[in-house]
Amino acid sequence: RARIFALANQKGGVGKTTTAVNLAAYLAAMGRRVLLVDADPQANATSSLGFDKNEVETSLYDVLVNEQPATEAILPTGRPEFDLLPSAPALAGAEVELVEVSDREQRLARAIAPIAGNYNYIIIDLPPSLSLLTVNALTAADGVIIPIQCEYLALEGLMQLVNTIKLVVVNLNPRLKISGIVMTMYDSRNNLAAQVVEEVKAHYPDETFATLVPRNVRIGEAPSYGQTIREYDANSRGAQAYKALTEEFAARVEGL
Amino acid sequence: RARIFALANQKGGVGKTTTAVNLAAYLAAMGRRVLLVDADPQANATSSLGFDKNEVETSLYDVLVNEQPATEAILPTGRPEFDLLPSAPALAGAEVELVEVSDREQRLARAIAPIAGNYNYIIIDLPPSLSLLTVNALTAADGVIIPIQCEYLALEGLMQLVNTIKLVVVNLNPRLKISGIVMTMYDSRNNLAAQVVEEVKAHYPDETFATLVPRNVRIGEAPSYGQTIREYDANSRGAQAYKALTEEFAARVEGL
Ligand SMILES: Nc1ncnc2c1ncn2[C@@H]1O[C@H](COP(=O)(O)OP(=O)(O)OP(=O)(O)O)[C@@H](O)[C@H]1O
Ligand SMILES: Nc1ncnc2c1ncn2[C@@H]1O[C@H](COP(=O)(O)OP(=O)(O)OP(=O)(O)O)[C@@H](O)[C@H]1O
Ligand SMILES: [Mg+2]
Ligand SMILES: [Mg+2]
Fold first, then answer.
1. Chain B residues near residue A44 by CB distance under 8 angstroms
2. What is the distance between the alpha carbons of residues A180 and A214, in angstroms, rounded to a whole number?
3. Which atom of ligand 2 is nearest to the CA of B241?
4. How confident is the model over B64-86, as pLDDT tens digits?
5. B219 in ligand 2 pocket by Cβ < 6 Å?
6. What Rg, from alpha-carbon coordinates, does chain A have?
7. B118 vs B82, B138, B185, CA distance in Å?
8. Which of A37, A117, A149, B244 is the most core-located residue (most Cβ within 10 A)?
């Protein structure tokens, strides 16, 4: 059965999509079977892998709202061991369309259950909000990976996110844990960045990954070619960091 | 009567809050009377000005959901000509609480109308989504200012945002215009950044401001001291850029 992880943080632009895509890519490169679920209406994970979100026929929207089986939406990415359940702009409507539905928080968990056996890892990318899509993912997941940008404003929202996770644990998913905190866009010339890292490590010493992901221009360039950082520039500092992060993550999860 | 502008972009981390706070600060420094409305449950604009979002007594939540008068929530910021209508974490619940309410899109416009006469400018910061809070601001506003990060993924969502603005114009607010597009976090060493700027200028030549806001560490540091960039480091490249941007914006709006 797959281990399911959600990338969550309501602060925008902290590296949720970048971490979801590249973690999934390196896990697949390590031979794990991986499904990336794009639960963000912006569909950035879908386009980062080279797909056109406006041409996607069956997306997570159909799976959640029309209860189509996940297998009908899942696409091979052309990369070994690596599939995608794509998003599309229609997903922005799911929130309102599911308001009246009694099992609205469990839709994703239900959709994933029949296919969980086909994968070792399911990675879920999320929008920058604590809305229904995020609660769906937290209800379906075993663990939450929290990317935090090494900036002051990114620190502000962490408490709110942790409180939301606690509510989900109590009301919807008792097995949910914080699987890891990833410090992203670390810039060693910026003395605030080091302070933010210290602050997060002080509060969450066990969760915070040792690997820091540096700010690296190549990471921002890769999605414009529809490539993962591993494909675009495997020797870049960004690629090396995501490779090390993935190894640290897999060791933690698989108890290696 | 105040001119009302909303900072909108559903892509996260593109500089909405940073632009809202610093544009408001420089407009006030130019002698304009300014109200900054924080319509983001993250309350980053509120904390960037030195307020503790968890200590705010009356926030935008009370104004929108409990229909308290805006005057009861508005706080002086201690800076001449510059007031704040603060946010608080409770605002995250406004979305769901207003679902059944018939005039839910007009709540902000109604709340602002009685106090618009006290200001020259009202600047509204928004969360990274196209949800009810954003639609409220677009319904109340004369214009939208769209910050765009000079990164590939930031370009992806522009069409969706423009389409949402068009829907608001047709259904809720015929006077709404795109008042300007601000290119933020421009890094001249990043060749993709220049391409993104060219692409945006090609599609929106009249809207795109000539002033580029560079990536500048001092901008990220200022909010951790509860200061605007003008207060924190007026001679920094970031401060100079926001000063120039504000002059360009005021000239455009006031027809100087
Ligand atoms: N380590 C890094 N170095 C440089 N650029 C990065 C890095 N990580 C992410 N980026 C870039 O920063 C921007 C924000 O990252 P990303 O889109 O992954 O964040 P997000 O949290 O998914 O955003 P959103 O909240 O909108 O979903 C993107 O343009 C991305 O390419
Ligand atoms: N020009 C700049 N140079 C350097 N850092 C910047 C710049 N503009 C913004 N930042 C920093 O980048 C981060 C994102 O900016 P900001 O929070 O203003 O974006 P936002 O669009 O309001 O995010 P959200 O989508 O979460 O509301 C913040 O930590 C901010 O301090
Ligand atoms: Mg994302
Ligand atoms: Mg913001």
1. 153, 156
2. 17
3. 1
4. 999 999 999 999 999 999 999 99
5. yes
6. 17
7. 11, 20, 33
8. A37
Other Cβ atoms less than 10 A from the Cβ of A68: the count is 16
Per-residue pLDDT tens digits for A186-234: 999 888 999 999 999 999 999 999 999 999 999 999 999 999 999 999 9
Within a 10 A sphere around the Cβ of B191, how many other Cβ atoms? 10
Please indicate if any CB of chain A lies within 8 Å of the CB of B247: no
Helix A16-29, helix A237-254: angle, nearest 10: 70
Name every chain B residue with its beta carbon within 8 A of the beta carbon of A95: 131
**Nearest CB partner across the interface for B217, out of A41, A127, A190:** A190
Two tokens, residue B252: 């455009």
pLDDT at B117 over 80: yes
Distance from Cα B233 to the centre of ligand 1, integer Å = 26
For testing contact with chain B, the best of A7, A10, A96 (most B CBs within 10 A): A10
- The pLDDT of residue B99 is 84
The helix/strand/coil state of B239 is: helix
- Ligand 2 contact via B58 beta carbon (within 6 Å): no
Contact (Cβ atoms closer than 8 angstroms) between residue A111 and residue A68: no
Angle at B32 between CA B126 and CA B89, to 5 degrees: 25
Given this model, what pLDDT does residue A154 score? Answer: 83
What gap in Å lies between CA B117 and CA B75, rounded to an integer?
17
